[in-house]
Design a protein that fits this description.
34 strands; eight-stranded antiparallel β-sheet; 34% helix; alpha+beta
Length: 808
Amino acid sequence: MLFGGGYWYLTASLPPREGTIWLAGLRSEVRIYWDERGVPHIEAAYPEDLFFAQGYVTAQDRLWQMDVYRRTAAGRMAEILGESSLEQDMFFRTLGLRQAAEASLALATPEARQMAEAYAAGVTAYIEHVKGTRLLPIEFRLLGYEPEPWTAVDSLLIARLMAYYLSGNWELELQRYLIAETVGWDVLHEWLPEYPAFAPTITTWAPMREGTAEEPAGEAPAVPAEPSPGAAPAEPALQPPAGLPLAELGAVELTGGSSPAALQRLQALLRFAPPPFLGSNSWALAPSKTATGGALLANDPHMQFAIPALWHQVHLVLEDDFNVIGITVPGIPGVVFGRNEHIAWAITSLMADSQDLYIQRPNPDNPREFLYQGRWEPATVREEIIYVKGRSEPVVYEVLETARHGPVLNPVLDEEGVHDVLSLRWTALGPTRELNALLPLMRARNFAEFEAAVDLWDMPALSLLYADAEGNIGYKATGLLPVRPAGAGRYPVPAWTGDYDWLGTIPKEDMPRAYNPESGFIVTANNAPADAAYPHYIGDQFDPWRALRITEVLAAGAGFTADDMRALQLDVLNVHARAVAPVLIEAVAAHLGGAVQPDPMETAALRLMQQWDFTERADAPQPFLWHLWRQELQRLVLRDRFGFVPNDELLLDHVLLRMAPAELQETATVAFRAALRRAASLQGDDPALWEWGRWHRMTVYHPVGESLAVLGWLFNVGDWPIAGSSETPYAAGYSSSGRVRHGAAWRIVVDLAAGAGRDVLLPGNSGHVLSPFYRNQAETWLAGELAEQPFRPDQYRRGTLLRLLPDE
């Protein structure tokens, strides 16, 4: 009886997909066609109606998810979840994302603001329609609250949250601070790996010059008049991308600046760092490399797998203006990744360093003041009031913002008194203009218009790839990135000297770009965006491995088809293992070779590794052993030394390959034996029977299904063996327990010659658990297939029609 009542409630709460709804705020009719995959195709005559309708239907699909996103960014989760979310709320309140979102709305052009406000009005219209009814998504009922009206600031808050997830440099800087405090600042340089010289870069640096061969045909549209926030001087003082001399760090007496208790609190901040393994793949092929004689573009953004999916598929058709299809983040208007009738674009993270941690010296007599060039400067005190479910009184939380270097992340005082603290300066904590970029991007018809739109995108820092119906391909990096007067921002620096204050931001015309390169293709997979000739420092967290594999495939062939691009998205060759494993295997073989009575399991496992072709098939034993071995090496070399594993994909190899042969043999063998013991405990004593996919498995979790196991069968999707890893083009990042949690929920391939795109979204486009579109794309995704995007009216108008009409 209880199950039947619950089922009735859930099905009754599904929003209508057909019929007519009269809504105040519309100027004229809006038609929404729902295709067989649950993707809305929205036609409108006026932009305010189009975005009102987008807000309305996105709320139909994803209202609870949107509310959680804005609450997370604003530091308001404790209001609905209680004490368990208080510290997270305090962290996000410290960052001040809401204040930054409000400042950014003030920079919006009138048209961009109209878009955001119309979208907010549409979301609010749906909220008002469902509040107090059984149409309210079940998650609100389970948590006992109702959503508030939506605002344009909420959309910008969600954009800030996405920027936070894609800007993890502060975490690595904090980890390097902890490393330096442990081993000494004078040897920190030994723990700073460099990007491999053999790894591909996205572009080869060449300054833009008017009239060069790379300049795209056609006149670029006028750039908006407002300056880039924090723009650099006309001729900023540039420094080579080299680290701060460590002798200089010693000269300012950094070592020992924090008490043990303060260091523990700093390490606790790592709980709020962005999830690991985030990144993306994209590539574009010129006609010289394709079978069709037109351009091809592929994209698969990598984020944390979840239900509802991070992305929402949508098609927007504005009469006599634009026709664009793709995905956006629920809560953000427009299409962020997509294509129109002329161009297609893809997005990956630039992996740029837009953040710096500064070591602050508080005044012992007044800890709200901080030393700067010989005098004490007062911080701005911001009082935050946090309401906590289950508490009768709110928590009043004090945030200190330094005059020049952002908010203080850790408490100034502890039981041992005043100590060094860290503050965060980040370009996304000020006003930015990405809202102004969306409409020009959706309208772009050529590379000049595309580039002008991209240059308005200030945060997060992104790599945007381009292809058009004429066969052109291109690339432009964007974001507000600091110009630093000294050092490279690789670790925290003293705030009080003034020597490391930013000079401004890299001019957008100097950001890496490419247009129709001679190679006939461009690959962006979180690899370095420019070669060593590039004069600005962008970052040091680039990932070489996926880009290396994709590049070698594209460079070796021609006549590629859209299906070849889909197959490359599924490629599971681990070129990182191909480069490093032989060195470790040889070290273990040398160490075990002197054994009088070799262990049979060790011998069998070593033979398997020597025979490995470095593909990570789900049924293969070698990737299972390889990844357990890597975990044991991380524990032995890094975790046991520092208490954590730094979020630096190149660090372990950097340390191992600098070891003397005897030390490497000993270290590799100890870790190898530990991995064998763990593998045997999980899958038995015969290495030939081990399988990567028996341990490396994926369930896509809904927050309700993950926290309440009894409801997991209803809310969660799948329990599948998964091939690949975070180092293969088929991205499948996993936790220490083997659960696959990160990868490409959305994949797309666009054939520009045919004007056709094919995509898939895991697990589906709806967030309603009993909707037919909740998990309907999961099997397609698992099989590695794509489905056609209905783009022409004769394709999508076959779907179910929902009409929105003005309520007179």
